[in-house]
């Protein structure tokens, strides 16, 4: 198979992972709402969805349109970072359990989770997002996608982390 076909399979696998994430998120969101969960910062959520879809689209379009090569010295280390980001993401999801979803929801009386990666980093899932946003496009030298996503994601994370910090401050 060609390098591009392998890369497209990788992007397809990430899309499947995202769909699985959304299924888990919807289940957890229902669980949280059944327990009186309150959502914070819903206004930025559509922008987050568009940005993440844009990342995946850019990862496919840029290498095809701009005829970006696969550079093994760049691509293989970036692939390792993509895998590491997925491991960290799912560690976050399993650590938070049913309290995790893609929205910011606080359940009355819930305690702040301080185990797993949250022992060391206050928002480890966003570390995974940042790493993936740089590494996934660079697996096939889509540097424009990596730059644009990283810049827009930094703006979005500034809002998102502020919303999460405010929401978490409401926990006892």
From TrEMBL:
Pfam name, any one: ICMT
Gene Ontology BP annotations: methylation
Gene3D superfamilies: 1.20.120.1630
Keywords: Membrane, Methyltransferase, Transferase, Transmembrane, Transmembrane helix
Keyword Membrane in record: yes
Membrane topology note: Multi-pass membrane protein
Protein location: Membrane
UniProt entry tagged with the keyword Transmembrane: yes
Major subcellular site: membrane
UniProt GO cellular component terms: membrane
Membrane-spanning segments: 44-66, 73-91, 134-156
GO molecular function, one term: protein C-terminal S-isoprenylcysteine carboxyl O-methyltransferase activity
The name this protein goes by in its record: Isoprenylcysteine carboxyl methyltransferase
Originating species: Mycolicibacterium madagascariense
